[in-house]
Design brief:
This protein is α+β, with helices and mostly antiparallel strands. The protein has a single domain, classed as Protein of unknown function (DUF541), domain 2 (Alpha-Beta Plaits, 2-Layer Sandwich). The chain is 25% helix and 43% strand. The strands form three sheets. Strands 2, 7, 8 and 9 form a four-stranded antiparallel sheet that branches. A four-stranded antiparallel sheet has the order 4-5-3-6. Strands 1-10 form a two-stranded antiparallel ribbon. Mean pLDDT is 82; it is low at 1-7 and 180-194.
Length: 230
């Protein structure tokens, strides 16, 4: 239904704010890939299972609990090449899987990573590490506070430029802010003997929020009213 002609329309201002809270991370998430090539599919599958078991055993020996080790992406495929006059030829089979590991003791993180690489040998790859928080609620609350303050400051500036002031909040929308892992692809078995140091430093928890405010303008007689346009 269309509105009657001449009906007053509330003036608003909509702003997106961003905020980040810095804190020392207490959780390291490690992605370990296992990939084995063999002439026979069964042999490739068995080899991948053995390498994966060796990696998980090494991690458990370093104090990693079962709840913090998860297997995903189990796959067995033919390894094929193109040969002139013969087309695609199967040269072997590849079995692969991915382990997602959460390390809660960051001081022992480098040793646990080295032990996993050593146990898996040449069949293991590190696909990435991500520093984060076991419970990010407190940091996220601070990030939201910062995002809100950022949005309100910008909205107040726009309101002043329009000769108005901020009124009631009309709408609030929070947006997801993805975090990116720290890539360490291509790390080979040689690193197992030269343990790499994991420096946690500080990580940021980010938030983004879009807020819509009414605009208040001074009516005749000095009273404030919701800004309207016709």
């Amino acid at each position: 239904m269309s509105e009657p002609a001449g009906r007053a329309e509330v003036r608003t201002v909509t702003v997106t704010g961003f905020g980040t809270a810095e804190a020392a991370p207490d959780l390291l998430t490690l992605s370990v890939g296992v990939e084995c090539r063999r002439d026979d599919a069964g042999d490739a599958y068995a080899a991948a299972g053995g390498a994966s078991a060796a990696v998980t055993a090494a991690l458990r020996s370093r104090g990693v609990e079962n709840r913090d080790i998860r297997t995903s992406g189990l796959n067995v495929r033919a390894d094929v090449v193109w040969q002139e006059g013969r087309g695609q030829q199967v040269t072997g089979y590849v079995a692969s899987s991915m382990l997602s590991v959460r390390l809660r003791d960051l001081s022992a993180g480098s040793g646990a990573i080295a032990a996993a690489v050593e146990a898996g040998g040449n069949d293991v790859r590190l696909d990435g590490v991500q520093l984060g928080f076991a419970d990010a609620a407190a940091g996220m609350a601070l990030a939201r506070d910062a995002a809100w303050a950022d949005a309100r400051a910008a909205a107040a500036q726009f309101a002043a430029l329009a000769g108005a002031e901020l009124g009631e909040v009309v709408c609030v929308r929070q947006h997801p802010v993805p975090s990116a892992p720290v890539p360490v692809g291509g790390m080979q078995r040689a690193f197992a003997t030269d343990s790499m140091t994991v420096e946690p430093g500080e990580s940021g928890v980010s938030a983004s929020v879009t807020v819509e405010w009414e605009l208040l303008v001074e009516a005749a007689g000095g009273e404030r009213d919701v800004g309207r346009q016709r």
